[in-house]
């Protein structure tokens, strides 16, 4: 859909494809990315870019690499070992690139072990172009170029958006002999390769009409598969019209819309911002923008015989009073985030925790709808009956949510990231602020002297990102990676493993009363010699089952997912020994266990 819309508007390259791991859940761009696991993120983004490039639009994967926070994003030095980088952030990119064969890779703003992402010879030349054989071109993030000779030599092929370093300065460097013509040839050849690869030379873009209705249908279908049911005590969901005669909708501007994420990934809503007066729609890239997607209206349309009243939630006593009179209370809570900033914490802003507490005290049948781009802490977890994570629900989010709440769609989404109980459980309990006088632009003045920023983040947790960190540190999360409930239930049985083909087989049965889709997850633990104290996601399969139906599932494990990176030999190694294979509905629930032997 995105590729088709870009082409219809005359564009020949996409600037999407964010594959950065959720190493720091407070990262303001978490909502743009695809989770904390390299196999998951790489597979999702790789296939997304493959499809966009299939629409004759050059694919682009970003932000390469270790660009995992927004604080000081133009200067921060990401300090990480080569093994850790290879087994986490770089692995996600490698998987995505191997699937998509994209024309372009966008290098990142941050420094990586001292060198900026767009002039880093290790990541650009040694890994991307030599080890992985990437044939496309490296494009800088906007304003992410810092040199001419160094960047050109390190593997940057194209500067954006201006020509500060790759314009006149590049010509002068060639004339002076400090940039050889062979580098210019290579830069040009790579750009041409990408243009031919995507088909834009043989079939140039020609503007057409964007199919808005189809786009809205796609957005709704994807959101229906992405909503995650986190809690459902005493089957408070789905709502059964014959049993629920009155509903209180509270908070979150749910009478008029649903929130979206800010920055360059912001999608402008039709008609402007839903919570601002007409003609005053937000246009700044960090405006808090609500789509005109009213959950209140969507539920009223599906429940014409049910009394549904709205309270803005700004007065806690008034909100609790309405909740007390209703059969079910639904609180809409949000956490806005954006490029260019990180969240101070994972708590809900604007006194929303207190609102939920008050409503839950007034009505035991309280359901919380979370509109967030990342994890949220939940001090009220044990006091509410239901929790539904809808993320940033998109252009038809109200319709998707209504279908989930009424059971017309059975939820099947699983968490692509761990929800911690508290920020104290994260590898870094807080994000360090920039040093005094450092405005995050690369250089800053102290007593008339110009100094390079000393701002750094040390990723001492290495490859222990997300669920791997919690398992290695023996920390219990609020909700584990891969978790998600359904309106039916599933049973796993019959695990067998073929060590010669590295193939896993098992059976999943729908033991409930509704048709549903389960995402069965396969994990592996490595032999003791590999020195790794956590499981890894190595595969998954979506299985749709009618009530009582069973299905045999086969998952082939790519040997890459079992390897470790040996820094001394600068290569990947497959350790001989016994691997544990674990299968189940989440990273924390793996009832099936077997062994795989590699000699």
Topology of this structure?
Layout: H1 2-8, H2 38-53, E1 60-64, E2 77-79, H3 82-87, H4 89-100, E3 104-107, E4 111-112, E5 115-116, H5 121-131, E6 137-140, H6 149-154, H7 168-176, H8 181-198, H9 212-226, E7 228-232, E8 246-250, E9 258-259, E10 290-291, H10 295-302, E11 307-311, H11 316-325, E12 328-335, H12 352-362, E13 366-372, E14 386-389, H13 397-405, E15 443-446, E16 449-452, E17 456-458, H14 467-472, E18 490-498, E19 503-510, E20 516-525, E21 536-545, E22 550-556, E23 564-566, E24 571-573, E25 577-584, E26 592-598
Helix pairs in contact: 2-4, 9-13, 10-13, 11-12
Summary?
With 599 residues, this protein is of the alpha/beta class. 24% of the residues lie in helices and 22% in strands.
Description:
The protein has 599 residues and is α/β, with parallel strands linked by helices. Helix content is 24%, strand content 22%. It has helices at 2-8, 38-53, 82-87, 89-100, 121-131, 149-154, 168-176, 181-198, 212-226, 295-302, 316-325, 352-362, 397-405, 467-472; strands spanning 60-64, 77-79, 104-107, 111-112, 115-116, 137-140, 228-232, 246-250, 258-259, 290-291, 307-311, 328-335, 366-372, 386-389, 443-446, 449-452, 456-458, 490-498, 503-510, 516-525, 536-545, 550-556, 564-566, 571-573, 577-584, 592-598. A six-stranded mixed β-sheet has the order 7-14-13-12-8-11, with helices on both faces. Strands 5-4-2-17 form a four-stranded mixed β-sheet, with no helix packed on it. A four-stranded antiparallel β-sheet has the order 21-20-25-26, with no helix packed on it. The protein is globular. This is Beta-glucosidase. Keywords: Glycosidase, Hydrolase. Its EC number is 3.2.1.21.
């Amino acid at each position: 859909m995105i590729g088709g819309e870009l082409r219809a508007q005359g564009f020949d390259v996409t600037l999407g494809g964010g594959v950065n791991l959720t190493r720091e859940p407070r990262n303001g761009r978490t909502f743009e990315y695809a989770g904390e696991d390299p196999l998951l993120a790489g597979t999702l983004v790789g296939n997304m870019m493959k499809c966009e490039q299939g629409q004759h639009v050059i694919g682009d994967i970003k932000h390469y690499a270790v660009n995992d926070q927004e604080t000081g994003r133009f200067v921060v030095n990401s300090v990480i070992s080569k093994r850790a980088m290879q087994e986490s952030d770089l692995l996600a990119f490698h998987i995505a690139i191997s699937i998509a064969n994209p024309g372009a890779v966008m290098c990142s703003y941050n420094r990586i072990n001292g060198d900026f992402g767009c002039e880093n010879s290790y990541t650009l030349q040694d890994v991307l172009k030599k080890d992985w054989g990437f044939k496309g071109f490296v494009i800088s993030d906007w304003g992410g170029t810092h040199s001419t000779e160094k960047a050109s030599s390190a593997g940057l092929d194209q500067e954006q958006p201006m020509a500060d370093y790759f314009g006149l300065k590049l010509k002068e460097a060639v004339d002076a002999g400090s940039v050889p013509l062979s580098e210019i040839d290579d830069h040009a050849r790579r750009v041409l390769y990408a243009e031919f690869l995507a088909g834009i030379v043989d079939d140039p873009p020609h503007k057409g009409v964007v199919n808005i209705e189809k786009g809205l249908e796609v957005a709704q279908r994807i959101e229906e598969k992405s909503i995650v049911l986190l809690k459902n005590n005493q089957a408070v969901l789905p709502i059964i019209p014959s049993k629920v005669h009155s509903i209180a909708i509270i908070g979150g501007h749910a009478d008029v819309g649903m929130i979206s994420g800010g920055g360059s990934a912001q999608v402008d809503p039709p008609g402007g911002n839903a919570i601002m007066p007409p003609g005053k729609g937000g246009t700044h890239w960090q405006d808090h923008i609500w789509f005109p997607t009213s959950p209140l209206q969507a539920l009223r349309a599906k429940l014409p015989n049910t009394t549904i009243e709205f309270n803005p939630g700004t007065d806690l006593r008034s909100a609790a009073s309405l909740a007390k009179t209703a059969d079910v209370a639904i609180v809409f809570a949000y956490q806005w985030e954006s490029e260019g900033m990180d969240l101070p914490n994972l708590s809900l802003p604007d006194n929303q925790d207190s609102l939920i507490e008050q409503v839950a005290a007034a009505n035991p049948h309280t359901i919380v709808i979370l509109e967030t781009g990342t994890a949220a802490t939940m001090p009220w977890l044990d006091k509410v009956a239901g929790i539904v994570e809808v993320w940033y629900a998109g252009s038809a989010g109200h319709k998707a949510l209504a279908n989930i709440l009424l059971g017309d769609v059975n939820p099947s989404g699983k968490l692509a990231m761990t929800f911690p109980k508290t920020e104290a459980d994260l590898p870094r309990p807080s994000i360090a602020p920039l040093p005094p006088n450092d405005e995050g632009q690369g250089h800053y003045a102290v007593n008339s002297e110009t100094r390079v920023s000393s701002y750094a983040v040390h990723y001492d947790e290495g490859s222990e990102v997300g669920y791997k960190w919690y398992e290695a540190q023996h920390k219990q999360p609020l909700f584990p990676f891969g978790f998600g409930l359904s309106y039916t239930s599933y049973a796993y049985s019959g695990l067998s493993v073929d060590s010669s083909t590295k193939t896993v087989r098992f059976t999943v049965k729908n033991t409930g009363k509704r048709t549903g889709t389960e995402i069965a997850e396969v994990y592996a633990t490595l032999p003791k010699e590999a020195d790794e104290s956590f499981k890894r996601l190595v595969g998954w399969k979506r299985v749709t089952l009618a009530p009582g139906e069973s299905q045999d599932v086969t998952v082939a494990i790519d040997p890459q997912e079992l390897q470790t990176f040996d820094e001394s030999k600068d290569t990947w190694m497959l350790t001989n020994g016994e691997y544990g294979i674990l299968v189940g509905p989440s990273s924390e629930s793996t009832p099936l266990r077997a062994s795989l032997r590699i000699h």
